[in-house]
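re: ur question from yesterday

yeah so i grabbed the chain u mentioned. its 495 aa long if i counted rite. heres the sequnce exactly as i have it in my notes:
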Amino acid sequence: MSRFPHLRQDFAASLVVFLVALPLCVGVAVASGVPAELGLITGIVGGLVPGLLPGSSLQVSGPAAGLTVLVFEAVDAYGLPALGVIVLAAGLLQLAMGALRLGRWFRAISLSVVEGMLAGIGLVLIAGQLYAAAGLTAPASGTDKILGLPGAVADALGSNEALASLAVGAGTVAVMVLWRRMPGPAGAVPGALAAVLLATAVTLAFGAPVATVEVQGLLDAVQPPGADAFGGLGIGVLGTIVAFTLIASAESLFSAAAVDRLHDGPHTRYDKELMAQGAGNTVCGILGALPLTAVIVRSSANVRAGARTKASRVLHGVWLLLFAALLPSALALIPLPALAGILVHAGWKLIPFRAVATLWRGQRGEALILVATAVSIVVVNMFEGVLIGLALAVVKTAWEASQAKLEVIDKGAGPVQVYLTGNATFLRLPRILDTLESLPRDRPVELDLTGLHHVDHACLTALRNWSERHSAPGTAPVKLTERPAEEKGLPVTAA
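ran it thru and got these structure tokens back, copy pasting raw so excuse formatting
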């Protein structure tokens, strides 16, 4: 025991994480349109591979609800055999990024973009799983999923089977919401597990006409990508690979930052953690399984359960492996609407309602970026939606950084004095030129740029051109004063 002083705490925590992870692994796989066993395989790899590697000590990896929509779109577009190739490529890319020490740069991504990404995923996930809860087939696009909900409700009301399925899904959500208030030992059981067990028991007891998980066996589910899978993919898959890589990496590293705030143990080494995630995804790709990422639900459960070292997350992978090997037939008893209910609940938790309200009161620009990112993901797709959010964040930052103040002093006699201070960029150029062009052309003008901290090439060129052309014939030319080149990197010009 001296070599493992915290084994008791880690053993107990690993059982809690296993019970939390089990229904989520299966639910994410089914929602992604792949065999349920692939979710368990990713959960096993998430425990055994990143769990044994350096990076983060207490965060737990596995299949994540945040990647469900992207995986479903990829499988729908390229087929299940191609999933392994995509995940393998994403894992290798993560390894390269970690080796190049790019992990820390993910902390520079705008939090509003990340929260908007999760909100958009949550909206699409909820909409899609509402169809699954009723036993209906969901439309392909996020917009069609949402717009088609009224018609789906009408279809469900006309079918006893759909109503029974919806009742199981709604009951699952209700149990998950209310379970945390359970007193005594019952409250220690993870809500998702309790909800699935109760839903399974009710459907078996009453013979409810609901669909259950299809089981094909753990070994049969493992489908390593063959030569055909590699050769059948075109250049268009590169965008999907990049999307997998960026979203999985961002979610993992943001989760690591959140988990670090929950405990006082060793903090995450971001580049190492990115490589650990990459190694896990490389193995998942070789096995043809789902992509993995660090998951805040499992990670926070691990910390709250008293885990002290990475042994807890490794052991949770061992328990998943034992379950998948010894009790695979138990999966066939789980009703699909119960898993849909779990994913609806998970999708709801991805939407940062409080963050939107807080940002709207204090930083409306950030709130608009969050909402725009979420809406773009719903309307367009995951990858392009995130790019739109990042572009908006860059534009907002550039606009705020470009704070230029233009002061005009006209004493009625002598030259008109103009002082430009702050940061002059092309974003502020129209307003600056409008003011300068309104100055009288028949009087001397002195334009002083020495108060600028920064001026970009476009703005400086425009100011020089204006100074050369502004004065009317017979009037002294504009006197332009700039900082010397050695100060702030500004070019030197003659007066």
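noticed a couple things. The mean pLDDT is 86. also The chain has two domains: 7-396, 404-481.
anyway ttyl
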